[in-house]
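Why do we bother with holo predictions? Because pocket geometry can differ from the apo form. Keep that in mind while you read this record for zinc ion.
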Amino acid sequence: MKFLGTSAGEGIPDPFCTCPICENARRVGGKELRTRSSFLLDEETIIDLGADYFAQARDHGLRLDKLRTVLLTHTHDDHFNYTFFWERSVKRAGTGEPLTVILSEEGKRYFDEFYVRSPALGSERLLSPPNAVLRAVKPGVPFEAGPYRVTPLRGRHSTAFEKNSTNYLVERNGESLYYALDSGYFTEETFEALRGRRLTYFIGECTFPVDFDYMTRESGHMDKKRFVENLDRLYEIGAIDEKTKIYATHISPFGSTHETLSAFFASLDRPYRAEAAYDGLELPALG
Ligand SMILES: [Zn+2]
Ligand SMILES: [Zn+2]
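The structure, written out:
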C-alpha cells in the first residue's frame, strides 16, 4: 500500500502562495512537498484518483493498466479528476476490461445527469464498457472489490452533488483499514459502525494542522484539535487501540510543516500513536 498524495485541495506548496509553510516546502523539499490525496491499496485498487494522478504515476514509476477498482470518497476535484476516463479511453494497448468506479448514489446520479445525459459533452462512451463501469454503493452495505470486503460509511462532508462523502472500511484476512477523507468529525452512525473494530490501520483527514477557533464538530473538515478528539473517541469505543497504525493525511499548508506536525504527534500524551503521512510512504499489504 502506498500514499501517492497526502495534501488537501491546494497541495503544498500552493503555487500561488508565499506563506512560510509553502516557502519552507520549496526550500526543504522531500516530505514537505504534498500532492493531492490518493491511496493505492494494491496495483488493482486505489482510493481516489484526483487532481495529480498523472504526475503521481510518473513520479512513482506507476502504471495504472492493472487498475480494476477506484473507490471514490467524493467528487471534489482534489479527489476525482474526470480526465482519467478520457485518458484511459485513448490508450492504444492494455486491457479491454472496464475500470469499475465505486461512488455514492448521489455521486452516481451526478454522473448520470450531468455527464451521460448532457449531449454537448458526449461522455456516454467514456462512462460505459469497455472503458468504465460506475457502481453506486450504500452506506453500511458491504461489497467485494478484488480480495477485499469493503464497507462504505458516511462522512460529514458535502459537495454540490453529494450530501455526504463516502469513507471506506476495507478488510482482508482479519486485517482492516479505515480510510476517512474527507470526513469531518465522525457522525454517531459512523462511530457505532466502527465500535470494537480494533483497526489495523486508520487513515484520517487532518486538513488543518492548526487549532482553528471557528472549527466545530459540525464542520466538514477537521483541524488538529478535532483530529485528536476524534481519535480519543475512536480509542474509547475500541475502534482503534495501542497497536493501530494511525496516519494523518489530507494536510493543508496551515500552521504546521511536516516536521512540526510529526513532532506534535510524537509528543502527544495518548495510549495510541499517530503519525503524519507523507507522499510515497509505503505500508505492508493488507492481510
Ligand atoms: Zn479534499
Ligand atoms: Zn472534499
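The two ends are 11 Å apart (CA to CA).
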